[in-house]
Amino acid sequence: MSCYDTLMDYGLRSLGYGERLLPRSDFTLCQQFVLIGSGMIWNVYFGIVALLSGFALATALAVGKASASPWFRKPAEWVIFLFRGSPLFIQFFFAYFLFLSLKGQVPAFDALTSAWLGAAVVLFFNTAAYSGEIFYGALRSVPRGEVEAADAYGLSGWSKFRRVIWPTTLRLAWPAYTNEAIFLFHATTLVFFSGFPASRQQGDALYYASYFADKTFNPFVPYPILAGYFVLLTLVVIGVMGMIGRRLNRHLPGAAPRRARGFGLLMR
Amino acid sequence: MLASCSDPETLSGLSWLMCYLTTGKHIAFYWAFGTVLLLLAVTAPVALLFGFGGAVAARSRFAPLSWLGRGYIAVVRGVPDIAFFLFFVIALDQGIEWLRHKAKCPDWDQPIRQGNDFIVCAEAKMPLSTSAQWVHEVYGFWLAVFTFALVFGAFAANVLFGAMRAVPRPQIETAEAYGMTRAQVFRRILVPQMWVYALPGLSNLWMVLIKASPLLFLLGVEDIVYWARELGSTKTPQFTDYPHGDWRMWYFLFLLVFYLGFTRISEIVLDRIMLRLSHGQETLANHKRTGPIGMNKAGPP
Q1: Which of A89, A148, A217, A218 to mutate to test the interface with B (most CBs of B within 10 A)?
Q2: If exposure means fewest CB atoms within 10 Å of the residue's CB, which of A8, B145, B207, B213 is most exposed?
Q3: What ipTM goes with this model?
Q4: Among chain B residues, CA nearest to A84
Q5: Closest CA–CA distance from residue B115 to any residue of chain A (Å)
Q6: Is 0.80 topped by the overall pTM?
Q7: Which domains, ranges and CATH numbers included, belong to chain A?
Protein backbone atom coordinates (compact mmCIF):
# COMPACT_ATOMS: atom_id res chain seq x y z
CA MET A 1 0.00 0.00 0.00
CA SER A 2 1.48 3.30 -1.04
CA CYS A 3 1.72 6.29 1.22
CA TYR A 4 -0.89 8.11 -0.87
CA ASP A 5 -3.40 5.33 -0.18
CA THR A 6 -2.61 5.56 3.52
CA LEU A 7 -3.24 9.29 3.40
CA MET A 8 -6.61 8.69 1.73
CA ASP A 9 -7.54 6.00 4.25
CA TYR A 10 -6.39 7.60 7.47
CA GLY A 11 -5.99 11.33 6.73
CA LEU A 12 -9.32 12.17 8.36
CA ARG A 13 -9.56 9.09 10.57
CA SER A 14 -9.72 11.20 13.73
CA LEU A 15 -13.00 12.68 12.49
CA GLY A 16 -14.42 9.29 11.60
CA TYR A 17 -13.91 9.33 7.80
CA GLY A 18 -11.98 6.73 5.84
CA GLU A 19 -10.87 3.32 7.00
CA ARG A 20 -12.84 2.01 10.00
CA LEU A 21 -10.16 -0.10 11.63
CA LEU A 22 -6.84 1.26 12.78
CA PRO A 23 -3.75 -0.55 11.44
CA ARG A 24 -3.07 -3.61 13.59
CA SER A 25 0.24 -5.02 12.35
CA ASP A 26 3.11 -4.17 9.99
CA PHE A 27 3.06 -0.53 10.98
CA THR A 28 4.73 1.71 8.43
CA LEU A 29 6.32 5.06 9.11
CA CYS A 30 3.79 6.62 6.76
CA GLN A 31 0.86 5.29 8.78
CA GLN A 32 2.28 6.77 11.94
CA PHE A 33 2.85 10.17 10.31
CA VAL A 34 -0.62 10.24 8.79
CA LEU A 35 -2.59 9.08 11.82
CA ILE A 36 -0.78 11.25 14.34
CA GLY A 37 -1.17 14.18 11.96
CA SER A 38 -4.84 13.37 11.65
CA GLY A 39 -5.10 13.50 15.42
CA MET A 40 -3.61 17.00 15.39
CA ILE A 41 -6.94 18.18 13.97
CA TRP A 42 -8.44 17.73 17.43
CA ASN A 43 -5.59 19.54 19.17
CA VAL A 44 -5.92 22.48 16.82
CA TYR A 45 -9.72 22.45 17.18
CA PHE A 46 -9.65 22.48 21.01
CA GLY A 47 -6.92 25.10 21.10
CA ILE A 48 -8.62 27.52 18.71
CA VAL A 49 -12.10 27.14 20.19
CA ALA A 50 -10.85 27.62 23.76
CA LEU A 51 -8.57 30.51 22.82
CA LEU A 52 -11.20 32.48 20.89
CA SER A 53 -14.05 31.95 23.35
CA GLY A 54 -11.78 32.24 26.37
CA PHE A 55 -10.50 35.63 25.25
CA ALA A 56 -13.89 37.28 25.84
CA LEU A 57 -14.35 35.77 29.30
CA ALA A 58 -10.72 36.57 30.18
CA THR A 59 -11.28 40.26 29.45
CA ALA A 60 -14.43 40.22 31.57
CA LEU A 61 -12.61 38.44 34.42
CA ALA A 62 -9.71 40.91 34.33
CA VAL A 63 -12.03 43.91 34.42
CA GLY A 64 -14.08 42.23 37.14
CA LYS A 65 -11.03 41.49 39.30
CA ALA A 66 -9.84 45.08 38.94
CA SER A 67 -13.28 46.41 39.78
CA ALA A 68 -13.84 48.33 43.01
CA SER A 69 -17.21 46.73 43.65
CA PRO A 70 -17.03 43.42 45.52
CA TRP A 71 -20.06 42.19 43.53
CA PHE A 72 -17.86 42.00 40.45
CA ARG A 73 -14.50 41.46 42.09
CA LYS A 74 -15.28 38.45 44.28
CA PRO A 75 -16.80 36.19 41.60
CA ALA A 76 -13.96 37.01 39.20
CA GLU A 77 -11.36 36.28 41.87
CA TRP A 78 -13.01 32.97 42.69
CA VAL A 79 -13.24 31.78 39.10
CA ILE A 80 -9.56 32.62 38.55
CA PHE A 81 -8.55 30.94 41.82
CA LEU A 82 -10.63 27.84 41.11
CA PHE A 83 -9.20 27.19 37.66
CA ARG A 84 -5.63 28.36 38.26
CA GLY A 85 -5.27 26.66 41.61
CA SER A 86 -6.17 23.13 40.58
CA PRO A 87 -4.68 20.80 37.97
CA LEU A 88 -6.33 20.74 34.57
CA PHE A 89 -6.17 16.96 34.69
CA ILE A 90 -8.39 16.85 37.79
CA GLN A 91 -10.69 19.48 36.28
CA PHE A 92 -11.23 17.26 33.25
CA PHE A 93 -12.01 14.23 35.40
CA PHE A 94 -14.35 16.15 37.68
CA ALA A 95 -16.14 17.85 34.78
CA TYR A 96 -16.60 14.57 32.94
CA PHE A 97 -18.15 12.81 35.92
CA LEU A 98 -20.24 15.89 36.69
CA PHE A 99 -21.56 15.94 33.12
CA LEU A 100 -22.17 12.19 33.36
CA SER A 101 -24.39 12.55 36.41
CA LEU A 102 -26.12 15.60 34.93
CA LYS A 103 -26.88 13.52 31.87
CA GLY A 104 -28.42 10.85 34.10
CA GLN A 105 -30.96 13.38 35.31
CA VAL A 106 -31.46 15.62 32.26
CA PRO A 107 -30.86 13.91 28.89
CA ALA A 108 -30.32 17.33 27.28
CA PHE A 109 -26.78 17.32 28.67
CA ASP A 110 -25.91 14.35 26.49
CA ALA A 111 -23.49 16.29 24.25
CA LEU A 112 -21.45 17.51 27.21
CA THR A 113 -20.18 14.01 27.95
CA SER A 114 -18.51 13.78 24.56
CA ALA A 115 -15.09 15.32 24.17
CA TRP A 116 -15.86 17.82 21.39
CA LEU A 117 -18.12 19.87 23.66
CA GLY A 118 -17.36 18.84 27.24
CA ALA A 119 -13.59 19.15 27.03
CA ALA A 120 -13.90 22.37 25.07
CA VAL A 121 -16.01 23.85 27.90
CA VAL A 122 -13.39 22.92 30.50
CA LEU A 123 -10.57 24.31 28.36
CA PHE A 124 -12.60 27.47 27.78
CA PHE A 125 -12.93 28.17 31.51
CA ASN A 126 -9.34 27.12 32.16
CA THR A 127 -7.71 29.35 29.59
CA ALA A 128 -10.06 32.21 30.49
CA ALA A 129 -8.85 32.04 34.09
CA TYR A 130 -5.17 31.95 33.15
CA SER A 131 -5.44 34.73 30.58
CA GLY A 132 -7.73 36.68 32.91
CA GLU A 133 -4.92 36.78 35.46
CA ILE A 134 -2.47 37.90 32.75
CA PHE A 135 -4.82 40.64 31.55
CA TYR A 136 -5.45 41.71 35.14
CA GLY A 137 -1.72 42.15 35.70
CA ALA A 138 -1.44 44.15 32.50
CA LEU A 139 -4.51 46.22 33.35
CA ARG A 140 -2.87 47.32 36.58
CA SER A 141 0.33 48.19 34.72
CA VAL A 142 -1.30 50.61 32.28
CA PRO A 143 0.79 53.78 32.60
CA ARG A 144 -0.91 56.42 34.71
CA GLY A 145 -0.02 59.07 32.15
CA GLU A 146 -2.12 57.40 29.46
CA VAL A 147 -5.18 57.31 31.70
CA GLU A 148 -4.64 60.94 32.67
CA ALA A 149 -4.27 61.89 29.02
CA ALA A 150 -7.57 60.15 28.28
CA ASP A 151 -9.18 62.09 31.13
CA ALA A 152 -7.77 65.31 29.72
CA TYR A 153 -9.33 64.55 26.35
CA GLY A 154 -12.68 64.24 28.08
CA LEU A 155 -12.99 60.49 27.55
CA SER A 156 -14.80 58.61 30.24
CA GLY A 157 -16.43 55.29 30.99
CA TRP A 158 -16.79 52.94 28.05
CA SER A 159 -14.97 55.05 25.48
CA LYS A 160 -11.98 55.52 27.79
CA PHE A 161 -11.79 51.77 28.30
CA ARG A 162 -12.35 50.94 24.65
CA ARG A 163 -9.90 53.47 23.17
CA VAL A 164 -7.13 53.78 25.76
CA ILE A 165 -7.08 51.21 28.55
CA TRP A 166 -8.00 48.06 26.66
CA PRO A 167 -5.54 48.47 23.74
CA THR A 168 -2.69 49.22 26.13
CA THR A 169 -3.64 46.25 28.29
CA LEU A 170 -3.49 43.95 25.29
CA ARG A 171 -0.18 45.41 24.19
CA LEU A 172 1.35 44.83 27.62
CA ALA A 173 -0.15 41.38 28.04
CA TRP A 174 0.65 40.08 24.57
CA PRO A 175 4.00 38.34 25.20
CA ALA A 176 2.61 36.51 28.23
CA TYR A 177 -0.61 35.75 26.36
CA THR A 178 1.41 34.18 23.54
CA ASN A 179 3.00 31.91 26.10
CA GLU A 180 -0.42 31.00 27.46
CA ALA A 181 -1.63 30.14 23.96
CA ILE A 182 1.33 27.78 23.46
CA PHE A 183 0.70 26.02 26.75
CA LEU A 184 -3.00 25.79 25.97
CA PHE A 185 -2.27 23.89 22.77
CA HIS A 186 -0.02 21.59 24.78
CA ALA A 187 -2.75 21.09 27.37
CA THR A 188 -5.18 19.84 24.73
CA THR A 189 -3.26 16.55 24.68
CA LEU A 190 -4.72 15.74 28.11
CA VAL A 191 -8.30 15.51 26.87
CA PHE A 192 -8.43 11.87 25.84
CA PHE A 193 -6.40 10.70 28.83
CA SER A 194 -8.74 12.09 31.43
CA GLY A 195 -12.13 10.48 31.32
CA PHE A 196 -13.45 11.79 28.03
CA PRO A 197 -13.81 8.72 25.80
CA ALA A 198 -12.41 8.60 22.28
CA SER A 199 -15.47 7.14 20.61
CA ARG A 200 -14.70 4.72 17.75
CA GLN A 201 -10.99 5.44 18.31
CA GLN A 202 -11.30 9.02 17.14
CA GLY A 203 -8.64 10.65 19.27
CA ASP A 204 -6.07 13.38 19.23
CA ALA A 205 -2.40 13.20 18.24
CA LEU A 206 -1.18 11.87 21.59
CA TYR A 207 -3.92 9.25 21.60
CA TYR A 208 -2.65 7.82 18.31
CA ALA A 209 1.01 8.21 19.32
CA SER A 210 0.44 6.18 22.48
CA TYR A 211 -1.60 3.67 20.46
CA PHE A 212 1.42 3.07 18.20
CA ALA A 213 3.83 3.01 21.16
CA ASP A 214 1.68 0.39 22.89
CA LYS A 215 1.31 -1.75 19.78
CA THR A 216 4.92 -1.66 18.59
CA PHE A 217 6.42 -1.31 22.07
CA ASN A 218 8.80 1.16 20.50
CA PRO A 219 8.39 4.75 21.76
CA PHE A 220 11.26 6.08 19.64
CA VAL A 221 9.18 6.54 16.48
CA PRO A 222 5.68 7.84 17.35
CA TYR A 223 6.65 10.29 20.11
CA PRO A 224 9.33 12.12 18.09
CA ILE A 225 6.77 12.42 15.26
CA LEU A 226 4.31 13.92 17.75
CA ALA A 227 7.03 16.23 19.06
CA GLY A 228 7.76 17.38 15.50
CA TYR A 229 4.12 18.22 14.88
CA PHE A 230 3.93 20.16 18.14
CA VAL A 231 7.10 22.11 17.47
CA LEU A 232 5.57 23.08 14.09
CA LEU A 233 2.29 24.05 15.78
CA THR A 234 4.18 26.10 18.37
CA LEU A 235 6.06 27.94 15.61
CA VAL A 236 2.77 28.71 13.85
CA VAL A 237 1.23 30.00 17.09
CA ILE A 238 4.27 32.20 17.76
CA GLY A 239 4.10 33.49 14.16
CA VAL A 240 0.40 34.34 14.26
CA MET A 241 0.53 35.88 17.71
CA GLY A 242 3.63 37.84 16.68
CA MET A 243 1.74 39.25 13.70
CA ILE A 244 -1.11 40.38 15.93
CA GLY A 245 1.38 41.78 18.42
CA ARG A 246 3.13 43.82 15.74
CA ARG A 247 -0.25 45.17 14.64
CA LEU A 248 -1.07 46.16 18.23
CA ASN A 249 2.25 47.98 18.47
CA ARG A 250 2.23 49.46 14.97
CA HIS A 251 1.83 53.12 16.01
CA LEU A 252 4.69 53.07 18.48
CA PRO A 253 7.97 54.59 17.24
CA GLY A 254 10.57 51.91 16.60
CA ALA A 255 8.26 49.23 17.93
CA ALA A 256 10.33 46.12 17.86
CA PRO A 257 8.31 42.98 18.46
CA ARG A 258 8.74 42.29 22.16
CA ARG A 259 10.19 38.93 22.94
CA ALA A 260 8.14 36.71 25.18
CA ARG A 261 10.04 37.33 28.39
CA GLY A 262 10.08 39.72 31.24
CA PHE A 263 6.73 41.19 32.06
CA GLY A 264 4.38 38.90 33.93
CA LEU A 265 5.57 35.80 32.16
CA LEU A 266 3.82 32.93 33.86
CA MET A 267 3.86 29.31 32.90
CA ARG A 268 0.88 27.14 33.61
CA MET B 1 -10.74 -0.83 60.79
CA LEU B 2 -12.99 0.04 63.65
CA ALA B 3 -14.50 -2.74 65.69
CA SER B 4 -18.06 -1.55 65.22
CA CYS B 5 -17.70 -1.94 61.45
CA SER B 6 -17.81 -5.73 61.44
CA ASP B 7 -21.36 -5.87 60.09
CA PRO B 8 -21.85 -2.98 57.64
CA GLU B 9 -25.40 -3.91 56.71
CA THR B 10 -26.72 -2.94 60.12
CA LEU B 11 -25.11 0.49 59.92
CA SER B 12 -26.73 3.63 58.62
CA GLY B 13 -26.12 7.34 58.29
CA LEU B 14 -23.01 8.80 59.82
CA SER B 15 -21.67 5.59 61.32
CA TRP B 16 -21.95 3.89 57.92
CA LEU B 17 -19.95 6.73 56.41
CA MET B 18 -17.35 6.48 59.18
CA CYS B 19 -16.90 2.79 58.53
CA TYR B 20 -16.95 3.29 54.78
CA LEU B 21 -14.19 5.89 54.92
CA THR B 22 -11.90 3.67 57.01
CA THR B 23 -11.92 0.54 54.84
CA GLY B 24 -8.55 -0.88 53.82
CA LYS B 25 -8.82 0.57 50.33
CA HIS B 26 -9.54 4.00 51.69
CA ILE B 27 -6.49 3.81 53.91
CA ALA B 28 -4.49 3.02 50.74
CA PHE B 29 -6.13 6.07 49.13
CA TYR B 30 -4.95 8.28 52.02
CA TRP B 31 -1.44 6.85 51.75
CA ALA B 32 -1.46 7.77 48.07
CA PHE B 33 -1.51 11.42 49.12
CA GLY B 34 1.78 10.66 50.84
CA THR B 35 3.09 9.25 47.56
CA VAL B 36 2.23 12.50 45.79
CA LEU B 37 3.86 14.62 48.48
CA LEU B 38 6.93 12.39 48.43
CA LEU B 39 7.16 12.72 44.66
CA LEU B 40 7.03 16.51 44.96
CA ALA B 41 9.57 16.60 47.79
CA VAL B 42 12.03 14.43 45.87
CA THR B 43 11.42 15.86 42.41
CA ALA B 44 11.81 19.55 43.27
CA PRO B 45 15.50 19.43 44.36
CA VAL B 46 16.44 16.96 41.60
CA ALA B 47 14.75 19.14 38.98
CA LEU B 48 16.57 22.16 40.38
CA LEU B 49 19.84 20.28 40.00
CA PHE B 50 19.01 19.37 36.40
CA GLY B 51 18.00 22.96 35.78
CA PHE B 52 21.27 24.24 37.19
CA GLY B 53 23.20 21.87 34.95
CA GLY B 54 21.14 22.89 31.93
CA ALA B 55 21.60 26.60 32.60
CA VAL B 56 25.35 26.25 33.11
CA ALA B 57 25.61 24.19 29.93
CA ALA B 58 23.60 26.74 27.96
CA ARG B 59 25.93 29.53 29.17
CA SER B 60 29.04 27.53 28.36
CA ARG B 61 31.63 29.02 26.01
CA PHE B 62 32.24 25.58 24.55
CA ALA B 63 29.78 25.62 21.64
CA PRO B 64 28.59 21.99 21.55
CA LEU B 65 27.84 22.07 25.28
CA SER B 66 25.97 25.32 24.84
CA TRP B 67 23.92 23.84 22.00
CA LEU B 68 23.16 20.83 24.16
CA GLY B 69 21.91 23.05 27.01
CA ARG B 70 19.86 25.28 24.72
CA GLY B 71 18.50 22.30 22.85
CA TYR B 72 17.42 20.64 26.10
CA ILE B 73 15.56 23.78 27.17
CA ALA B 74 13.96 24.37 23.77
CA VAL B 75 12.82 20.82 23.04
CA VAL B 76 11.29 20.12 26.43
CA ARG B 77 9.51 23.46 26.45
CA GLY B 78 8.23 23.06 22.89
CA VAL B 79 6.57 19.68 23.36
CA PRO B 80 3.62 18.84 25.67
CA ASP B 81 4.94 17.53 29.00
CA ILE B 82 2.52 14.61 29.02
CA ALA B 83 4.06 13.32 25.77
CA PHE B 84 7.42 13.34 27.52
CA PHE B 85 6.04 11.41 30.45
CA LEU B 86 4.56 8.73 28.25
CA PHE B 87 7.74 8.58 26.18
CA PHE B 88 10.30 8.45 28.97
CA VAL B 89 8.57 5.80 31.03
CA ILE B 90 8.98 3.29 28.21
CA ALA B 91 12.22 4.69 26.83
CA LEU B 92 14.04 4.75 30.17
CA ASP B 93 12.84 1.26 31.02
CA GLN B 94 14.03 -0.09 27.68
CA GLY B 95 17.30 1.83 27.89
CA ILE B 96 18.14 0.43 31.32
CA GLU B 97 17.24 -3.12 30.27
CA TRP B 98 19.31 -2.75 27.08
CA LEU B 99 22.38 -1.63 29.03
CA ARG B 100 21.98 -4.47 31.53
CA HIS B 101 21.48 -6.88 28.67
CA LYS B 102 24.74 -5.77 27.05
CA ALA B 103 26.60 -6.16 30.32
CA LYS B 104 25.10 -9.40 31.62
CA CYS B 105 24.44 -11.47 28.53
CA PRO B 106 27.31 -10.82 26.07
CA ASP B 107 26.81 -14.13 24.25
CA TRP B 108 23.15 -13.51 23.38
CA ASP B 109 22.92 -13.66 19.59
CA GLN B 110 19.28 -12.84 18.80
CA PRO B 111 18.24 -9.29 17.96
CA ILE B 112 16.63 -7.36 20.81
CA ARG B 113 13.86 -5.88 18.67
CA GLN B 114 11.94 -8.69 17.00
CA GLY B 115 9.04 -7.13 15.16
CA ASN B 116 6.80 -5.67 17.82
CA ASP B 117 8.67 -7.22 20.75
CA PHE B 118 11.50 -6.01 22.90
CA ILE B 119 13.37 -9.07 24.14
CA VAL B 120 16.26 -9.12 26.58
CA CYS B 121 17.62 -12.07 28.55
CA ALA B 122 15.93 -12.90 31.85
CA GLU B 123 18.82 -11.67 33.99
CA ALA B 124 18.62 -8.24 32.42
CA LYS B 125 14.97 -7.64 33.29
CA MET B 126 14.53 -4.63 35.51
CA PRO B 127 13.33 -5.33 38.12
CA LEU B 128 13.86 -9.08 37.97
CA SER B 129 10.66 -11.00 37.33
CA THR B 130 11.28 -12.90 40.56
CA SER B 131 11.45 -9.83 42.79
CA ALA B 132 8.67 -8.79 45.13
CA GLN B 133 5.74 -6.56 44.27
CA TRP B 134 7.08 -3.63 46.30
CA VAL B 135 10.32 -3.63 44.27
CA HIS B 136 8.26 -3.13 41.12
CA GLU B 137 6.36 -0.28 42.75
CA VAL B 138 9.49 1.45 44.02
CA TYR B 139 11.16 1.07 40.62
CA GLY B 140 8.10 2.57 38.91
CA PHE B 141 8.11 5.44 41.36
CA TRP B 142 11.76 6.24 40.70
CA LEU B 143 11.22 6.16 36.95
CA ALA B 144 8.43 8.68 37.51
CA VAL B 145 10.65 10.89 39.68
CA PHE B 146 13.40 10.87 37.07
CA THR B 147 10.96 11.70 34.26
CA PHE B 148 9.41 14.56 36.23
CA ALA B 149 12.85 15.90 37.12
CA LEU B 150 13.98 15.76 33.51
CA VAL B 151 10.96 17.68 32.22
CA PHE B 152 10.82 20.25 35.00
CA GLY B 153 14.59 20.56 34.96
CA ALA B 154 14.26 22.14 31.52
CA PHE B 155 11.82 24.70 32.85
CA ALA B 156 14.11 25.37 35.82
CA ALA B 157 17.05 25.70 33.43
CA ASN B 158 15.14 28.36 31.54
CA VAL B 159 14.41 30.28 34.75
CA LEU B 160 17.98 30.02 36.04
CA PHE B 161 19.43 30.95 32.63
CA GLY B 162 17.37 34.13 32.70
CA ALA B 163 18.30 34.81 36.32
CA MET B 164 22.02 34.50 35.59
CA ARG B 165 21.64 37.06 32.84
CA ALA B 166 19.70 39.36 35.17
CA VAL B 167 22.58 39.74 37.61
CA PRO B 168 23.77 43.33 37.05
CA ARG B 169 26.73 43.54 34.71
CA PRO B 170 28.75 45.91 36.97
CA GLN B 171 28.83 43.24 39.69
CA ILE B 172 30.61 40.86 37.33
CA GLU B 173 32.92 43.57 36.06
CA THR B 174 33.89 44.55 39.59
CA ALA B 175 34.73 40.94 40.39
CA GLU B 176 36.83 40.72 37.24
CA ALA B 177 38.59 43.94 38.19
CA TYR B 178 39.56 42.29 41.47
CA GLY B 179 41.32 39.64 39.42
CA MET B 180 38.91 36.77 39.98
CA THR B 181 38.94 33.97 37.45
CA ARG B 182 35.84 33.02 35.51
CA ALA B 183 35.17 30.13 37.89
CA GLN B 184 35.57 32.36 40.92
CA VAL B 185 33.22 34.97 39.51
CA PHE B 186 30.68 32.24 38.87
CA ARG B 187 30.98 30.72 42.32
CA ARG B 188 31.29 33.84 44.45
CA ILE B 189 29.24 36.46 42.60
CA LEU B 190 26.91 35.02 40.00
CA VAL B 191 25.40 32.06 41.84
CA PRO B 192 24.79 33.82 45.18
CA GLN B 193 23.19 36.78 43.45
CA MET B 194 21.01 35.04 40.91
CA TRP B 195 18.61 33.42 43.39
CA VAL B 196 16.62 36.52 44.11
CA TYR B 197 16.02 37.00 40.39
CA ALA B 198 15.18 33.34 39.97
CA LEU B 199 12.74 33.11 42.84
CA PRO B 200 9.60 34.43 41.10
CA GLY B 201 10.14 31.98 38.25
CA LEU B 202 10.98 29.11 40.57
CA SER B 203 7.94 29.64 42.77
CA ASN B 204 5.79 29.67 39.66
CA LEU B 205 7.50 26.45 38.64
CA TRP B 206 6.69 24.88 42.00
CA MET B 207 3.01 25.65 41.37
CA VAL B 208 3.26 24.08 37.91
CA LEU B 209 4.91 21.03 39.45
CA ILE B 210 2.12 20.64 42.02
CA LYS B 211 -0.44 20.84 39.25
CA ALA B 212 1.44 18.26 37.18
CA SER B 213 1.56 15.72 40.02
CA PRO B 214 -1.75 13.96 39.13
CA LEU B 215 -0.07 12.94 35.86
CA LEU B 216 1.62 10.24 37.96
CA PHE B 217 -1.50 8.27 37.16
CA LEU B 218 -0.44 8.08 33.52
CA LEU B 219 2.92 6.67 34.53
CA GLY B 220 1.28 3.63 36.09
CA VAL B 221 1.78 4.62 39.73
CA GLU B 222 -1.18 3.89 42.02
CA ASP B 223 -1.72 7.49 43.00
CA ILE B 224 -4.72 9.50 44.18
CA VAL B 225 -6.30 9.68 40.72
CA TYR B 226 -6.11 5.89 40.42
CA TRP B 227 -7.76 5.38 43.79
CA ALA B 228 -10.40 8.06 43.21
CA ARG B 229 -11.49 6.29 40.02
CA GLU B 230 -11.28 2.91 41.69
CA LEU B 231 -13.16 3.76 44.87
CA GLY B 232 -15.70 6.07 43.30
CA SER B 233 -17.03 3.73 40.63
CA THR B 234 -20.33 1.94 41.17
CA LYS B 235 -20.10 -0.91 43.68
CA THR B 236 -22.62 -3.74 43.71
CA PRO B 237 -23.44 -5.73 46.87
CA GLN B 238 -21.85 -8.91 45.46
CA PHE B 239 -18.33 -7.54 45.62
CA THR B 240 -18.30 -5.22 48.59
CA ASP B 241 -19.89 -4.66 51.97
CA TYR B 242 -20.45 -1.03 51.12
CA PRO B 243 -22.45 -0.84 47.89
CA HIS B 244 -22.98 2.61 46.39
CA GLY B 245 -23.66 4.33 43.08
CA ASP B 246 -21.24 6.25 40.89
CA TRP B 247 -19.48 8.55 43.32
CA ARG B 248 -16.48 9.41 41.17
CA MET B 249 -17.68 13.00 40.88
CA TRP B 250 -17.45 13.44 44.66
CA TYR B 251 -14.04 11.84 44.88
CA PHE B 252 -12.68 14.14 42.20
CA LEU B 253 -14.33 17.09 43.91
CA PHE B 254 -12.35 16.11 47.00
CA LEU B 255 -9.12 16.01 44.95
CA LEU B 256 -9.97 19.40 43.48
CA VAL B 257 -10.37 20.87 46.97
CA PHE B 258 -7.15 19.20 48.11
CA TYR B 259 -5.20 20.78 45.27
CA LEU B 260 -6.81 24.18 45.77
CA GLY B 261 -5.76 24.13 49.41
CA PHE B 262 -2.29 22.90 48.57
CA THR B 263 -1.60 25.59 45.96
CA ARG B 264 -3.09 28.28 48.20
CA ILE B 265 -0.83 27.36 51.13
CA SER B 266 2.20 27.19 48.80
CA GLU B 267 1.35 30.60 47.44
CA ILE B 268 1.20 32.17 50.90
CA VAL B 269 4.47 30.55 52.02
CA LEU B 270 6.29 31.51 48.81
CA ASP B 271 5.08 35.10 49.10
CA ARG B 272 6.53 35.26 52.61
CA ILE B 273 9.88 33.88 51.42
CA MET B 274 9.96 36.33 48.54
CA LEU B 275 9.27 39.24 50.86
CA ARG B 276 12.06 38.14 53.18
CA LEU B 277 14.64 37.55 50.43
CA SER B 278 13.96 40.66 48.43
CA HIS B 279 13.90 42.84 51.55
CA GLY B 280 15.60 46.10 50.69
CA GLN B 281 16.38 45.02 47.14
CA GLU B 282 15.23 46.89 44.12
CA THR B 283 13.78 43.94 42.20
CA LEU B 284 10.72 43.69 40.06
CA ALA B 285 8.88 41.72 42.75
CA ASN B 286 9.57 44.31 45.40
CA HIS B 287 8.81 47.10 43.04
CA LYS B 288 5.40 45.72 42.25
CA ARG B 289 4.45 45.22 45.85
CA THR B 290 5.02 48.82 46.86
CA GLY B 291 3.64 50.16 43.61
CA PRO B 292 5.38 52.51 41.22
CA ILE B 293 7.85 54.90 42.79
CA GLY B 294 6.23 58.02 44.09
CA MET B 295 2.83 56.53 44.76
CA ASN B 296 3.35 56.08 48.48
CA LYS B 297 4.04 59.71 49.15
CA ALA B 298 0.51 60.59 50.12
CA GLY B 299 0.33 57.88 52.78
CA PRO B 300 0.52 58.49 56.53
CA PRO B 301 4.03 59.20 57.84
Answers
A1: A89
A2: A8
A3: 0.85
A4: B260
A5: 8
A6: yes
A7: 3-9+26-248 (1.10.3720.10)
pLDDT score of B114:
67
Q: Which residues does chain B have within 8 Å of residue A81's beta carbon, measured at their own beta carbons?
A: 260, 264
Domain range summary for chain B, segments of one domain joined by +:
28-234+246-278
Confidence of residue B61 (pLDDT cuts 50, 70, 90): confident
For the ranges B173-177, B220-224, B288-292, which has the lowest average pLDDT?
B288-292
Q: Do A230 and B208 touch (CB under 8 A)?
A: no
SS (H, E, C) chain B: CCHHHCCHHHCCHHHHHHHHCCCHHHHHHHHHHHHHHHHHHHHHHHHHHHHHHHHHHHHCCCHHHHHHHHHHHHHHHHCCHHHHHHHHHHHHHHHHHHHHHHHHCCCCCCCCEECCEECCCHHHCCCCCCCCHHHHHHHHHHHHHHHHHHHHHHHHHHHHHHHHHHCCHHHHHHHHHCCCCHHHHHHHHHHHHHHHHHHHHHHHHHHHHHHHHHHHHHHCCCCHHHHHHHHHCCECCCCCCCCECCCHHHHHHHHHHHHHHHHHHHHHHHHHHHHHHCCCCCCHHHHHHHCCCCCCCCCCC
**Inter-chain residue contact A97 with B248, CB threshold 8 Å:** yes
Asked: is B28-234+246-278 a CATH 1.10.3720.10 domain? The reply is yes
Q: Which residue of A has its CA nearest to B253?
A: A94
Give me the residue from B116, B205, B249 closest to A94, CB to CB. B249
* Cβ contact, residue pair A190, B82, below 8 Å: yes
